[in-house]
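ok trying this again, last paste got cut off
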Amino acid sequence: MSNPFFKNYGPFLVSDILKLINVKTDNVKKDVELKDIKDLYSSNNSDITFFHSKKYLEIAKNTKASFCITTEFLKKELPTSCVPLVVENVLVSVSKITSMFYPDAINDDFDESVIDINETDFKDKVIYGKNVLIGKNVSIGKNCKIGHNTIIEKNVSIGDNSSIGSNTIIRNSLISNNVKILDNCVVGKHGFGFFPNKIKNLRYPHIGVVIIKENCEIGCGSTIDRGSMSNTVIGKNTYLDNQIHIAHNVKIGENSIIAGQVGIAGSSIIGSNVRIGGQAGISGHINVGNNVEIGGGSGVIKNIPDNTKVMGYPAKNIREFLRDNK
């Protein structure tokens, strides 16, 4: 479930996709219809996917997609059931194809559909402050509170007993029961996904959502970007301190605590029972295991196994760090 809020304009013929990404080949059935573009893990035989890094080698070997945008070097790793479409720049081609299927997911302008909460059915069901605006396709559970000047834009579900602070904006998000999102947060806007170009940068569509599971707290001034090809997920009973940035496609497990000013770059996976000290930075596409402790100010640039304590830049085992910094 990566795209419940964005209209899919497919299916499209393979011939249309080949033309879009400028691939010329006579060895492909061009009259096949493709229904969607998905990541390697979630694709099925009516989808097209992409494979751009050996980090995803094991997943690529088992993908069920019929077609895959990839490189000459990586194409041999795909199963025989998946036809490789070799391009020079995989992610640029994927951006173009995703824009074809989901043109409404490219831009992220303010929601023009919002109306004052006093004009909605929520006025008798929610405790709210002044100047609260609500968009279309919004559901709010029982015993919820919404602070002053907050905008719940289109495509948001909020569970029971949840509290949304003042001056907060939420869209394209699924929020469970007993969640607290404090003041000045932005949740569910698109992430920092684009490809530099001297004439005009190419914006990458974000068709995922933000999922915040039960009993979480999101600190003041934090930003959680929605996913690009998958979802951004905050596991249950996880607490984020103030001024934290969670980028697109990040997955954080259960019972984790993250201190202020931490930044987690796109597509990184953080395990359960993780502790991250203030001002630490996690690079993109990193796997942090369960029961990991990361010291404040650390820079994580490679995977961290379960049950590990690290500190420093680049982050290293805490014993090694202390030995080197006596």
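PB: full thing came through this time. Helices lie at 14-20, 57-61, 90-101, 318-324.
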